[in-house]
Amino acid sequence: MQKQNNKFSHLTAIERVYLSFPARFLLEKNQLQGKILDFGCGFGNDVKLLQQKGFNITGYDPYYFPQYPNEKFDTIICFYVLNVLFPEEQANVLMEVSHLLKPGGKAYFAVRRDIKKEGFREHYIHKKPTYQCITKIPFKSILLDEYCEIYEYTHYNYQRNSSNQCIFCNPYRKLTLLTESATAYAMFDGYPVSKGHVLIIPKRHIANYFELPFKEQSACWLMANKVQEILSKEFQPDGFNVGMNVNKDAGQNMMHASIHVIPRYKGDAVESRGGMRSVIPKRKIINSK
Prior knowledge:
CATH class of the largest domain: Alpha Beta
Organism: Crinalium epipsammum PCC 9333
Pfam families: HIT (PF01230), Methyltransf_23 (PF13489)
Domain HIT: 164-271
Oligomer: single chain
Protein name: Histidine triad (HIT) protein
GO molecular function: catalytic activity
Helix content: 10-25%
């Protein structure tokens, strides 16, 4: 059966002349700090109303305000967006918000808790199929009632995630986190072999990548696509090597799984033909494709 397209998710946006409940809640708690982005702002009602109150806030919505931000923000709000997206689309939003958040900043996700039935339904005004789902994300919950839940998100390296001594479970704040999803994060390598060298790291503490649950493996490769997109824009490399080390005999030093995304540039090596086959120099096949 062909999966139904979710192209009408933007139709769930509504016009308002008052602040949304999550915006009022964060305003009362004094959580709207610094430069603010409303990600998935719909018609931009919260943006306009908060601007009138003197807040430095801009909005982004792929349908209504499609100019993608080109800066970082102290606070990002994302209200009732995840509930109208498929899982892969939700993961993409989490990664984009993480990438746009300044180190030490905070993002707030509001999701509906009054959805009785998941799936597609005909929109009562537009008569188009719109999608709704129950959404839970593994971030800190700061409010929960029968209608709404609000999560607070900070970058993975601004938290204490485990009592073990693994630096991939508790990465240093000085390292730059590139993006993050529910089950993985990507950081610039502390000892890069090229400009823009990134590690994609599953949050589950496990040494062998192949022992990860399939969904978490898939999340890592979805993140690899996002990382490639970001690096291509920021560094304009001429190619990439992507791979992993599994077990010590294959060169794994940190016993926590990771995937290397290494940008390549013309002239960065004496002999680049052979690509991944060059990992064992004596067995390199020069004419391989």
